């Protein structure tokens, strides 16, 4: 070990693990800089402009979480650091193929890099790294965030937490025990799976172990080898309590701002009894309240936002409605019975995740209708208000004098429950020609990954979009040069080479005529799929 960080052997072991079994590098929308800026704004803090921001990701793997940001913000700069040369080489290849000249990927150990040479960053992301590295590297990550974060910057860090991990550790410890003496990733996975089967056979269902195993199966039962290796069998996995984490961050001059999913911060979302007891017990301490909540919900994972400690005094957890006016909102909350009725009858709306919301206020119904009509894209505050007014006018209903406040009530509910996406900048699709053309980086990503085991691309909401093998090829040829017939022919050529397999009623389709028919059906259904993936607006497709 040198004076600056973790023992070399420990870091070498982490590097060797990732080089041997590289991590699938994805986009995480909850860490998108535009999302972080909007949350900071909601709770009272300004941030630097996202469109020209400097963004650092620590432990970026192959850059999968930086690529959508760099592609969507050409004036911004993104820098990713990762220990594994295998990851960085793959990421550089992808960035080059996508023509991204604002993304730089660097190989290195965060505990031993000269970060000062890279300058300051407006947003720093560290996802899925902190809990899986030695203690000294954890300290180095917090030091790096503290030193490299711009004065008004926001950092995102995810980590495993207790109490949820207490039970999960039993399963991990048992699997690790069984892996003693194994060498290769395959051997490790086999031993670990063997251990789980053995314990399931012998543990009574109503024992602590039986319940822990049932929970494990519910979350990870069908997960692939890859998940097992990197989530459960990683050499380091050090969960901690939320308050411990914040105390450690405080030691580095950093303060808690919020969670990346703000809905988990509010006791009211966990029932009246929980809210009443916790508010009594924790008073105004947001952090204490959240630690109590972690016990109530047995939380296993957190995605916390940090800022420089000097800014802690400006944070307000009471939502300031005047701030909504600078925000852009997107929500897909359709009426359960299909059509909006702009009258005083009770209507129920389906929220993502299955909960329902009801109202008999035509003003709220008009606002929800405006949001639904624009989903998955955003409406500014003013557009939302205007949209509600226009709908009421055309239904011959006089808008309530306090319509604006009612819509603010609605937005507050949607924000607190995590049912709306919001940003400081609009999120809108780029205009499309009728010859289908995807955003070029999204198309190229499909092209680059189409032969992989898990082809994928990304959208302007910073989401990773897994693709079926056929869609991997289909999306990669949507470059605006092909009409429907040409798309069928392009995919037919690919099917003839056995690169994709088409099935109908479980049977493999063969012969050109049948293949053409199946492909045409697949292509005809594509605009809807693209709209669902938030890659196109259905009205752009001109069907
Ligand atoms: C579990 S992966 C997560 C990758 C990515 N952030 C994600 O969530 O998809 C952890 C990553 O951290 C990197 N890493 C581990 N220790 C590191 C260190 N000391 N310095 C830089 N990167 C490190 C690994 O190489 C690996 O890519």
Describe the fold and architecture.
The protein is of the alpha/beta class and 543 residues long. Helices cover 43% and strands 14% of the residues. The protein has 20 helices and 16 strands. The protein has helices at residues 8-20, 33-42, 67-72, 85-97, 135-148, 164-179, 185-202, 208-220, 225-232, 242-251, 272-282, 286-297, 362-374, 381-394, 403-416, 440-449, 469-476, 484-496, 512-524, 526-532; strands at 54-58, 77-82, 103-107, 121-126, 149-160, 254-259, 301-308, 328-330, 347-350, 356-359, 379-380, 421-423, 456-458, 464-466, 503-504, 507-508. The strands form five sheets. The protein has a seven-stranded mixed sheet, with helices on both faces. Helix 5 (135-148) links the parallel strand 4 (121-126) and strand 5. The longest helix has 18 residues, at 185-202. The radius of gyration is 25 Å and the shape is globular. The chain starts with 7 loop residues before the first helix and ends in an 11-residue tail after the last helix. 40% of the residues are buried. The mean pLDDT is 91. The site of S-adenosylmethionine has 24 residues, from helix 1 and strand 2.
Strand content: 5-15%
**CA-atom Rg in angstroms:** 25 Å
Bound molecules: S-adenosylmethionine
First-last Cα distance? 64 Å
How would you characterize the largest beta sheet? Answer: 7 strands, mixed
Order of strands across the main sheet: 3-2-1-4-5-7-6
Mean of residue pLDDT values:
91
- For the secondary structure, the number of strands is 16
Q: What structural category do the secondary elements indicate?
A: alpha/beta
**Shape category:** globular
- The percent range for helix content is 40-55%
Number of helices, where a helix is a run of at least 4 consecutive DSSP H or I residues: 20
Q: Ranges with pLDDT <50 over ≥5 residues?
A: none
């Amino acid at each position: 070990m040198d004076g600056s960080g973790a023992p070399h052997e420990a870091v070498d072991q982490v590097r060797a693990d990732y080089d041997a079994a590289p991590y699938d590098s994805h986009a995480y929308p909850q860490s998108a800089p535009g999302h972080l800026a909007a949350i900071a704004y909601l709770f009272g803090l300004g941030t630097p402009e996202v469109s020209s921001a400097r963004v650092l990701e620590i432990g970026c793997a192959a850059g999968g979480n930086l690529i959508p940001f760099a592609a969507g913000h050409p004036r911004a700069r993104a820098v990713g650091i990762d220990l594994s040369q295998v990851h960085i080489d793959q990421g550089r290849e992808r960035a080059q193929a996508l023509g991204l000249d604002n993304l730089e990927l660097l190989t290195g150990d965060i505990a031993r890099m000269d970060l000062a040479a890279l300058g300051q960053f407006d947003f720093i992301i560290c996802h899925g790294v902190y809990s899986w590295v030695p203690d000294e590297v954890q300290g180095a990550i917090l030091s790096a965030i503290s030193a490299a974060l711009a004065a008004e910057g926001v950092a995102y860090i995810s980590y495993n937490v207790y109490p949820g991990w207490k039970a999960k550790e039993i399963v991990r410890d048992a699997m690790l025990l069984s892996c003693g003496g194994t060498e290769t990733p395959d051997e490790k996975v086999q031993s670990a799976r063997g251990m789980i089967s053995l314990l399931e056979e012998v543990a009574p269902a109503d024992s602590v172990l039986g319940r822990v195993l049932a929970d494990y199966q519910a979350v990870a039962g069908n997960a692939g080898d890859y998940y097992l290796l990197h989530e459960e069998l990683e050499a380091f996995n050090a969960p901690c309590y939320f308050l411990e984490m914040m105390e450690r961050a405080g030691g580095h001059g950093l303060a808690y701002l919020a969670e990346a999913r703000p809905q988990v911060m509010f006791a009211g979302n966990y029932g009246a009894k929980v809210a009443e007891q916790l508010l009594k017990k924790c008073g105004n301490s947001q952090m204490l309240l959240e630690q109590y909540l972690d016990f109530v919900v047995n939380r296993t994972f957190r995605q916390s936002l940090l800022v420089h400690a000097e800014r802690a005094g400006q944070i307000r957890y009471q939502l300031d409605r005047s701030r909504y006016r600078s925000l852009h909102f997107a929500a897909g909350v359709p009426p359960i019975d299909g059509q909006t009725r702009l009258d005083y009858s009770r209507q129920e709306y389906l929220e993502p995740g299955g909960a329902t919301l009801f109202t008999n206020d035509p003003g709220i119904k008009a606002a929800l209708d405006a949001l639904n009509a624009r989903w998955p894209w955003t409406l500014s505050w003013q557009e939302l208000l205007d949209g509600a007014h226009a709908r009421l006018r055309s239904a011959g209903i006089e808008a309530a004098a306090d319509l604006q406040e009612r819509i603010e009530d609605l937005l507050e509910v949607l924000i607190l429950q995590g049912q709306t996406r919001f940003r400081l900048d609009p999120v809108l699709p780029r205009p499309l020609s009728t010859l289908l053309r995807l955003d070029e980086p999204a198309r190229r990503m499909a092209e680059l990954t189409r032969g992989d085991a898990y082809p994928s691309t990304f959208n302007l909401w910073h989401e990773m979009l897994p693709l079926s093998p056929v869609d991997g090829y289909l999306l990669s040829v949507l470059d605006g040069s092909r009409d429907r017939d040409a798309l069928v022919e392009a995919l037919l050529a690919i099917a003839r080479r056995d690169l994709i397999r088409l099935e109908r009623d479980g049977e493999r389709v063969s012969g050109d005529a049948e293949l053409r028919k199946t492909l045409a059906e697949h292509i005809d259904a594509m605009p809807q799929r693209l709209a669902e993936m938030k890659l196109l607006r259905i009205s752009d497709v001109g069907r």
